[in-house]
Specification:
By secondary structure, the protein is of the alpha+beta class. The chain has two domains: 117 residues, Arc Repressor Mutant, subunit A; 156 residues, Beta-Lactamase (2-Layer Sandwich), CATH 3.30.450. The protein is 39% helix and 22% strand. The chain is built from nine helices and eight strands. The strands form two sheets. The protein has a five-stranded antiparallel sheet. Strands 1-3-2 form a three-stranded mixed sheet, covered by helices on one side. A hairpin with a 2-residue loop joins strand 6 and strand 7. Helix 3 packs across helix 5 and helix 5 packs across helix 8. The protein is globular. The structure holds zinc ion (ZN). Zinc ion (ZN) binds next to helix 3 and helix 5.
Length: 280
C-alpha cells in the first residue's frame, strides 16, 4: 500500500508542477489543466462528490468550504488514478483477496491525494521541523492550510517520521447497527445502544506503521488516556493500549481534546532525534 501511496503523491505533484501557479493549487487551475468539467449537483446524502471520465460533480448541499475543497481534490485524484493504468492494476492485485475489495483502499488513496494537493508534504514537513511532531500540530496545520482537521490528520500521518497512528475521535451516538468484529475489541454488550460515546471517526497510519488502523466506531475503555483527556478537557499523554483489529498493543498516546472531539496520536516507535532528522 505504501508504494501506491507514494505513486499517488507523485501523480499529485506532477499535476501541481504542470498546472499550478503556486505551491498550493486552486481547484480551477488544476481542472482547466486536466481539462476536467466541473458541475455542482444533487447527490445522495452522504455522497460529497463523484467523478466519471472527465466530469466531476460536487454535492451542492455541502456547506463547509473546507469539506468542499477536500472533496474537489479527492475527485481530481480519482481521475488521476483512473487514467494511470499501472496504479489501477497494482490496486487490483493488492485487493484481490481482501475482504472489502477495491473501494476502501481506493478511497484511502484519493484522500491521500486530496491532502497532498491541499497541504503539500514538503510544506507540512517544514511545519513540523519548526514546531515539533506532536498532536497539537494537527490543529495548527488545519488552521495554517485552511483545511479540515480530518484532512490535516491524513497528511500529518503521511509525513510522520516514526511508526504512529493518528486518530480523530468524536463524542456522539454510535450506530446500533452491528459493528465489524474487529472494531469490537474493547466493547461489550449494549454500549452501542443510544448512548453518547467518544468513538473513532477517522484513523490514519504513518508509512512506517504500514497499514495498521483503527476501525471507525472503535471506542476506548473509560480509563483510557483518550477518554480521560476528554473528561478533564486537557491534553494528556501516557502509556496506553491501542485496540488494533484483533489484538492490542501498548504504547505512548498523546490525546488533545478540542470541543466535541479528541485528536490522538499513538506512537508505536519513538521519534527520531530532532537533530538527526533530515530537512526536505
Ligand atoms: Zn472517492
Amino acid at each position: 500500500m505504501n508504494r501506491m501511496k507514494r505513486h499517488v503523491i507523485e501523480l499529485v505533484r506532477d499535476a501541481v508542477n504542470k498546472y499550478a501557479s503556486m505551491t498550493i493549487p486552486t481547484f480551477d487551475e488544476i481542472c482547466s489543466g486536466l481539462e476536467l468539467e466541473v458541475k455542482d449537483g444533487k447527490l445522495p446524502s452522504g455522497t460529497d462528490g463523484a467523478q466519471k471520465d472527465k466530469i466531476i460533480i460536487i454535492n451542492s448541499q455541502i456547506k463547509s468550504e473546507e469539506r468542499k475543497r477536500f472533496t474537489q481534490f479527492h475527485e481530481v485524484t480519482h481521475y488521476l488514478i483512473e487514467k494511470d493504468g499501472d496504479l489501477i492494476s497494482e490496486l487490483h492485485d493488492y485487493t484481490i483477496n481482501q475482504e472489502h475489495g477495491f473501494k476502501k483502499p481506493l478511497e484511502t488513496l484519493c484522500n491521500i491525494g486530496a491532502a497532498e494537493f491541499l497541504m503539500p508534504s514538503k510544506e507540512f514537513t517544514k511545519l513540523y521541523n519548526k514546531r515539533g511532531f506532536n498532536v497539537q500540530l494537527i490543529l495548527f496545520a488545519a488552521n495554517y492550510f485552511k483545511s479540515s482537521t480530518i484532512a490535516a490528520t491524513i497528511q500529518f500521518a503521511q509525513v510522520a517520521p516514526n511508526k504512529c497512528i493518528a486518530v480523530v475521535c468524536e463524542n456522539g451516538l454510535v450506530p446500533n447497527a452491528p459493528v465489524p468484529s474487529q472494531a469490537s475489541f474493547f466493547t461489550t454488550g449494549n454500549q452501542y445502544h443510544n448512548k453518547s460515546k467518544l468513538h473513532v471517526i477517522y484513523s490514519a497510519s504513518s508509512p512506517a506503521a504500514s497499514d495498521r488502523w483503527l476501525a471507525k466506531y472503535t471506542i476506548f475503555p473509560d480509563d483510557h488516556v483518550i477518554n480521560q483527556a476528554f473528561l478533564r478537557a486537557e491534553k494528556l499523554e501516557g502509556e496506553s493500549e491501542i485496540p488494533f483489529p484483533g489484538w492490542q498493543e501498548s504504547c505512548i498516546c498523546e490525546a488533545l481534546p478540542d470541543k466535541n472531539r479528541v485528536y490522538a496520536l499513538f506512537h508505536l516507535s519513538s521519534l527520531p532525534d530532532p537533530n538527526q532528522m533530515t530537512l526536505f
